[in-house]
Amino acid sequence: MRDAHRHEPVAGNPGGGTVLAAWERFVRGEDQVPGVRPVVAISWYRCRDQYRVDPHLREVPVAVAKPDPAPEHDVVFAELGFRAASVAHEVGNLGGVVTVTDATGRILAEWGDQATLARATDANLAPWFCWSECAAGTNGMGTALEAHGPVLIRGAEHWCQAFHDWFCEGVAVRDVVTREPIAVLNISCWRSQLPASAGSWLANAVTRTQRMLTRRARDSGAELVAAFSQARARSTAGLAALDNAGKVVIADETAGVLMGVPAATPAVDPTLRWRPGLPELIGAVRYASKQAARNPGWVGSTQIFTRLADEPTSITIRPVFTSGHLIGNLVSFGDADGAPVPRADGAAQPRPRPRRVVATRDNRMVLLRLPEVSFAESEGNDVWLSTDQGRLRAASAGLDKFDGELADAGFLRVHRRYVVNLSRVREVERGVKGELSLVMDDGGNTMVPVSRRNVPAVRRALDI
Q1: Are 450 and 464 in contact (CB under 8 A)?
Q2: What residues contact residue 128 under an 8 Å CB cut-off, 6+ apart?
Q3: What is the pLDDT of residues 169-209, one digit of tens each?
Q4: pLDDT (tens digit, 9 = 90+) per residue, 258-278?
Q5: Which of 172, 185, 312, 392 has the most other CB atoms within 10 Å of its CB?
Q6: At CA 209, angle to CA 207 and CA 210, rounded to 5?
Q7: List of residues 6+ apart from 118 with CB closer than 8 A
Q8: Residue 60 backbone class (left: φ over 0; alpha: ψ -120 to 50; beta: rest)
Q9: Domains of the chain
Q10: Three-state DSSP class for residue 442
Q11: Residue 7 pLDDT more than 60?
């Protein structure tokens, strides 16, 4: 990361006072924020109405949550630390600091200009303090955990007035399978614009780190498929291999029907896995992963409700290790062996369905009722919604997150790029080779393709 000159101090209020004026009105309770970028406006909305962060907060709190990182997360922290340290001198020459946080927004380490580091300490911009949005409001680190891609926050765009003199840009490293954040790499300057090269450097550092995670996902996926094949040869019970996050890598016909996922077809890309619509199963697998991490010989069993049965089905969960690291579990259906897995309180109760979807139009947030959304389409990290009010960008980035939030509300993933509202499917068109396309009730009769591996799930969902 290089810049031709050190930037001179500037006012901590970009936009000639427009943003500051909008911030003052928004803090007083108004909802209109003309001149404010959508990513900032949405963040303000979260800070005020969801997290209820005091805009006059002067110091962020000490981090309370201490996550238990997976082995690959430690590798991410080490990689980001190396990259941050390698540019510490250049960032310091610009009067800036570079920080690395974990998924909770807790700063793990920082490097840079000593004078700026001392000033940062006054605001608790220092290790072991929490900079998530729910703790510190809109800022480069916390907002990067909520969004996809580099997030630039300038001056008065910060939610807390005490940080209006800061300019920062952060980007999150996300798990390539779950898309959940693992860490954030961030650069901050006090009363100085960030160099133009900051965003590209951050994005490049994260891209390199996520390539490493993709290689690991490919290797662990192949190991889980191999373990599945060996176990399948020894048993007639329905069988599936799930990763540590509870996503399906491969399943046989019986298990695939019970979970509502494609059968016997591992993804070509090992980072594209399937989310079973069974919260109890996901919870049991995550519990099993924690137990197996402590005791590699652990095997557990429980009962869960599957898609096609009125009575619970017994399952057995066996951990799979490679080179001493837990990579997932084999789940056999109709089989009970090992230690009992405790059932979560209310596990049989369906989770509450969201009542609305938040989208953006210009600088406004649009609150949509679920029936107003016909389908969602991904374009890179953005999700676009086909709605009764036209085509709108979803406030939440990433189709996986959208799919997860609405899986129990009548929405179905039919393609790597599409999630549809099943109640808005008007017609089903069948191709000469058995492929399906869905004709949507969206005014334009848009045709949404169904990927081959999702055809069985679509047929079951539409009862065709």
Answers
A1: no
A2: 62, 63, 106, 107
A3: 999 999 887 778 999 999 999 999 998 888 889 988 999 99
A4: 887 777 766 556 667 887 878
A5: 185
A6: 65
A7: none
A8: beta
A9: 18-196 (3.30.450.40), 218-340 (3.30.450.20), 356-462 (2.40.50.1020)
A10: coil
A11: no
